[in-house]
């Protein structure tokens, strides 16, 4: 049966989805800006890891994404945190970066989230030595550089989308998570994100064992998240790293995790091979969503994979 003309045109329009073309052009500019910035800063790019016997345990539960290869269980990468730490220890570099595809099979409870995808890309960065403050300053310069490049070179696209880019100033505002919890309760990240006009930091979160603990307990951890304003929410998470065997093993046990799954990584720590580093991961899709002011993260990807939904083309 032949489709009538109206139906054919509708189908063609939905397949064409030309609303996404200006978004992809902005994404191109963002990616070019990131590479230019990283190379100018003297960081070394690594290729992404897709499969590994070890991946990030994360601080929230997700469904397992594993395959069996010749009797060996391999995870799809949730983040390259351990590979970053090992690479930094092995290489004579100032720092590394990776455009790293992450698979996180989020639970159905995130079905209504407009910020999560089952598959996304993070710009993963790790600097040798260095402090949380130095890393945050590096990221502030990166964000200002990206936003400025988009503002300068994507006029036509920004006009088509009816948006303007606001360039933030350094240093970004900073909040301490424990103060915010007292003031706003558990939903503090969203509350503050709605109040701010520019990207801002929240520091000191209770989470994965690899984020460096504060030995003097002024705060608890030398870690941070970068947030977008206007309710757009989390942009980056990271921290200084713990790398000494005794500390790592204690923290793994405190979290009720099995040290056996981190065996090879812990062996390197035991041999004293791991070194101090600081880093974080910036979500590319979330960055594009913020720059293009889209309501849902699926609106900026051509083949979105949304938690709790069947995956289609
Ligand atoms: N990439 C993050 C970091 O470097 C880790 C993560 O994505 N969970 O800390």
Question: What would your notes on this structure say?
Answer:
The protein is α+β, with helices and mostly antiparallel strands and about 325 residues long. It contains ten helices and 13 strands. The strands form three sheets. The protein has an eight-stranded mixed β-sheet with strand order 1-6-8-13-12-11-10-9, sandwiched between helices. β11 and β12 (about 235-240) form a beta hairpin. α2 (about 20-40) packs across α4 (about 130-155), α6 crosses α7 and α8 packs antiparallel against α9 (about 265-270). The longest helix is centred in the middle third of the chain and has 22 residues, at about 130-155. It is globular. The structure holds asparagine. Asparagine binds near residues 58, 79, 122 and 279.
Task: Briefly characterize the structure.
This protein has helices at 5-16, 21-40, 81-90, 132-153, 155-161, 177-184, 188-195, 245-254, 263-270, 284-292, and strands at residues 44-45, 51-52, 62-63, 66-69, 72-76, 95-103, 105-106, 119-128, 173-176, 200-203, 223-228, 233-240, 277-283. With 313 residues, it is α+β, with helices and mostly antiparallel strands.
Which key phrases capture this entry?
single chain; 313 residues; alpha+beta; eight-stranded mixed sheet; 10 helices; 36% helix; binds asparagine
């Amino acid at each position: 049966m032949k489709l009538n003309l109206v139906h054919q045109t509708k189908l063609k329009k939905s397949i064409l989805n030309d609303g996404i073309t200006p978004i992809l052009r902005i994404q191109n500019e963002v990616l070019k800006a990131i590479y230019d910035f990283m190379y100018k800063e003297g960081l070394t790019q690594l290729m992404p890891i897709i499969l590994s016997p070890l991946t990030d345990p994360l601080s929230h539960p997700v469904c397992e994404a594993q395959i069996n290869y010749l009797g060996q269980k391999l995870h799809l990468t949730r983040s390259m945190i351990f590979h970053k730490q090992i690479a930094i220890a092995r290489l004579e570099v100032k720092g590394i970066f990776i455009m790293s595809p992450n698979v996180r099979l989020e639970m159905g409870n995130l079905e209504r989230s407009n910020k999560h995808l089952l598959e996304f890309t993070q710009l993963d960065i790790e600097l040798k030595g260095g402090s949380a403050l130095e890393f945050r300053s590096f990221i502030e310069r990166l964000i200002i550089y990206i936003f400025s490049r988009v503002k300068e070179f994507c006029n036509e696209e920004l006009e088509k989308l009816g948006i303007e880019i606001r360039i933030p100033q350094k240093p970004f505002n900073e909040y301490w998570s424990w103060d915010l919890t007292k003031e706003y309760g558990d939903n503090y990240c969203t509350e503050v994100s709605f109040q701010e006009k520019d990207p801002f930091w929240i520091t000191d979160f209770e989470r994965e064992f690899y984020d460096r603990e504060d030995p003097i307990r002024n705060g608890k951890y030398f870690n941070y998240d970068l947030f977008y304003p206007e309710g757009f929410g989390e942009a980056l998470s990271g921290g200084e790293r713990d790398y000494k065997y005794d500390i790592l093993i204690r923290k793994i046990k405190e979290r009720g995790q099995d040290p056996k799954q981190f065996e090879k990584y812990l062996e390197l720590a035991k041999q004293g091979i791991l070194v101090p580093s600081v880093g974080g991961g910036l979500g590319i899709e979330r960055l594009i969503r913020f720059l293009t002011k889209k309501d849902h993260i699926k609106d900026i990807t051509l083949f979105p994979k949304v938690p709790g939904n069947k995956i289609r083309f």
